[in-house]
Amino acid sequence: MDMATAHFLMEGKGGVGKSLVASLLFQYLKFHEKPVSGCDTDPVNSTFAGYTEFGVSTLPLMNGEDIDSRKFDELIDNICSLPEDEHIIVDNGASSFVALCSYAKESGALTILSNQGHTVLLHSVVTGGLGMQDTLMNIESLIKHFQFPIVAWLNPYFGEIVTDGRDFWEFKVYKSDPSRFKAVIKLPKFKAETFGRDFEDILIRRWTFDQAINSSLPIMARSRLSATWQKIRQTMDEAGLI
What's this model's pTM, rounded to 2 decimal places? Predict the structure, then answer.
């Protein structure tokens, strides 16, 4: 039996869909009947914990400008005590990205988890538009400071992730060493006035796809959401995440 898998959402740019990714990952693992739990450590916006269906715990890790070492120790202890084969998704805030990366590196906490037999995956979001360079720099920082596999989530909501006709797979951050990436997941871009509007509606409500599909929403909206969820799952399947 495998030990637990810890998924750390590590993103230094706010508003790029980090908590969305956490919710999609949670739903995906649950769909595949994997035991999964969540922890929201964001000291500013506990969006992930807002999904009441998930039963996410909260553990703010910051004490002023620094990491609260006792709470971080508690997080690591909690992960170490998880049952075999369980997944835990840890959603970290953008405001704590630098401090958390620094503390995790200095303390060797993630290495301790790995040495205990747990799988550690670092998830980060790349967005199009004005935030693209910042999000790419965040992934470069993770690659530089940690030796754990990276899962890159490409979110085209703010624009296509393309530079001079080249996509992410042709960017230096990926081409320099593709082996550093466990998976690259390109989220679909949906038509704004139909599928996109339905999707945004359930994000605002903090609903899961299952909640929305089995709700009293209009039948066409529920049908579109079912197709959206199927498309997202297919994308994650093709990326080989699990």
Answer: 0.94
